[in-house]
Write a structure and sequence with these properties.
Largest sheet: 2 strands, antiparallel
Order of helices and strands: HHHHHHHEEHHH
Low-confidence stretches: none
Number of helices: 10
Number of strands: 2
Helix content: over 70%
Distance between the termini: 46 Å
Length: 268
Amino acid sequence: MNTQIRSRVITASVGVPLLILVIGWGSAAQFSLLVFLVTLVALCEYFLIVFRERWKERTLGIVSGVLVSLGIVIPGISEPGLALAIAILLAFSTYLFSGGKLEARFQHLGWTVLGALYVGYFVPHLVLLRQSHDGRAWVSFLLLVIMSGDTAGYFAGTSLGKNKLCPEISPGKTVEGALASLAASLVVGVLGGTFLLPTISWVESLLLSLVLSVLGQTGDLFESWIKRVFSVKDSGYLLPGHGGLLDRMDSLIFPVVFITYYLRWLHP
């Protein structure tokens, strides 16, 4: 077992039991706190990537993302869109009146708004999913589908991968890894859905797993795109064998948004 795989196994042996404990037995407040802390760390990682040498812009971005996330994770807020609007208006106004070249300020504004949405708004949808009917089961289902796909994709890509999936964005990802990830997500999704979500059919579990897997791999590529643009290998070093926290959860971000609103529309 090489060093990277050993580090991944050790990290998973600590992180997975913690997730099971919080999701299965933790209160809604404890889960919300965990999601907020995860969001905060991911915000710090993102804005350190895009504003590595610019602490003022980095601080503004983190503050904007935190405001957005609080609008979701704090119980009893009926209009989470209000926090989003305030944060975006804050960023607009700050860059409008800040010094520097117009083009650079406009570009920095775009990176700030992207981070506030991508991390500050999307990641806390885990809290909204947890609040759904059978929320614990749906969060567990989502994690099973995505994490099993990630694991299968990593090992298949490492051992069997020959054909590059998207070399311009992520040279390490292969077609073989993507197919293995999809297959694992489908199998685990159907089996997991049978036990966790007995009220939905295996066909729905299969189709959901398909969509979630595709979205998860798309989200993985999206974060790789960000790192590629800024010439960064990992978003951080918090998780040995995985890189940063954003590296580990990038494949969850798009799927959690989809499944949250899927449930609201089709399983209210």
